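Below is one such protein, fold included:
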Amino acid sequence: MLTVDYDLLDLRPGMTVLDLGCGEGRHAFEAYRRGARVVALDWGVSEVETTKRWLGAIAEAGEAPAGARFEVVRGDLRHLPVPDASVDRVIASEVLEHVPDDARAMAEIARVLTPGGRVAVTVPRFGPERICWALSDAYHANEGGHVRIYRGDALRARLSVAGLTPGRQHHAHALHAPFWWLKCAVGVERDAAVVRAYHRLLVWDLTRRPWVTRVAERVLDPLIGKSLVVYADKPAVARPAAARERERTAAAR
């Protein structure tokens, strides 16, 4: 299940892609299959091992083109083990909402991107996420949980302060919003029948990709899409310090 649109990310074979907070590797897998040199990074030990194992399986199955490479590392988004201006594309999917110092993480993204490089940032959308927080503290108030809810304009402003230029944006995963509302309403730890039934629908959608759910999601994404996706570029020429200071002031308001 991909959140990022790889056409809007403009990912091309041979590019170096850094997948931050890669989880179990879903975005790294797609980048690798498209011929990228992938660096997948996560803080979780099990996540790193799972991603490494599955990327190896993709390689063994011959599903990646010649020239594609991968590396999986454990690391901190606030201190990326990556040289300056060495990455063509960055994916930061559903991770910044977990990071207390997101400004530092965004600055690190800007640091490692090559001039003209692009990042795709995805976060939970404000409306659907706010409903989850209202229904259940257990949904977010736990170790490693969500520490903030982003409004779209605030996210774009913070990316600008980091030295990036926000561009296109869209929403994704509308069918997943009601699932999480149900789960929060009945209790995130409860194995309720209604939650199991909705989960079967999501699995059916994921494995079969039927036209009816594809159409439904396209119609509903602008209204209740669970994720907000923003694409931002690192300018080929750095912006003047005065402009960056104005953006920093605006973002702090």
In short: The mean pLDDT is 95.
